[in-house]
Design goal:
single chain; alpha/beta; Nucleotidyltransferase, domain 5; 6-stranded mixed sheet
């Protein structure tokens, strides 16, 4: 699979530092400012007197054995959503997601995408890593958003504004749908980049999920620095000396 084209302008990343240089070389480039190429955030409005609006928030990559969990927040202007064809990202083809991604970042009032990498996931566990990513994504759109709708049945603690959890929100709320698309496309692109650094695992095909091909590669090659060592199949592939040093987490179903 050929890696997708580079991300459009308006891109910002929140990648926690990794200890190994090899992993760092595989990460997307980022700068802290807005409207910088390869920066995972964008905004078309940043004035402090903007009325409070709703941010939709969703994640991609809770279940994989490797790579980051990615969380996105999207805010649309009041009225008719300026992007047609939105849906839960899992219900869309990769090509359709790419098309919608470009429209969302162009037409959304504000958006922000956050990475929580494998080292942080292993340190605090996947649940807390996801909650951390949701809070950081929301913080990236607070210049326009005064309320958050988050896909799922749990809310992060200490959010900076009122929020509600919506089970199935990625199939019912258009801002959450848009966030699910940004998170999924961003993560898939990143996994294709990791495939170039670690080609033996097939990250460009399975995106780090626990497919038979991925499990076979893991058994054959052992984990790379992008694998989540707190996940049981990865831990099983570690030497016993290291397997005892991480807390176990279950692998989730491929989505």
């Amino acid at each position: 699979m050929k890696p997708p084209a580079a991300n459009p302008p308006g891109y910002d990343a929140a990648l926690p530092a990794r200890a190994d240089a090899a992993s760092a070389a595989a990460r997307p480039a980022f700068e802290g400012a807005r409207f910088v190429q390869d920066n995972h955030c964008g905004s078309r409005l940043s004035t402090s007197d903007s009325p409070p609006l709703v941010a939709g928030i969703d994640e991609a990559g809770r279940g994989p054995l490797a790579g980051p969990v990615v969380v996105a927040a999207v805010v649309f202007a009041p009225g008719r959503t300026p992007v047609n064809g939105l849906d839960d990202s899992k219900q869309l083809t990769p090509a359709r997601r790419e098309t919608l991604y470009l429209r969302i970042v162009e037409r959304a009032l504000a958006w922000h995408v956050v990475f929580i990498d494998a080292a942080e996931i292993d340190r605090i566990n996947i649940y807390h890593a996801t909650m951390l990513g949701m809070r950081r994504a929301l913080e990236g759109v607070l210049h326009v958003a005064g309320h958050a709708r988050i896909d799922g049945n749990a809310l992060p603690r200490d959010l900076p504004c009122p929020a509600e959890a919506i089970v199935g929100g990625d199939a019912s709320d258009r801002a959450i749908m848009a966030a699910s698309i940004l998170a999924k496309v961003t993560r898939d692109r990143h996994m294709c980049t990791l495939h170039q650094r670690w080609p033996g695992y097939g990250f460009d095909e399975h995106k780090g999920y626990a497919t038979p091909a991925h499990r076979a590669a893991l058994a054959r090659l052992g984990p790379c620095p992008e694998h989540r060592r707190s996940f049981a199949p990865v831990r099983a592939a570690l030497p016993d000396l290291f397997a005892e040093c991480v807390a176990p987490q279950p692998a989730e179903t491929v989505v």
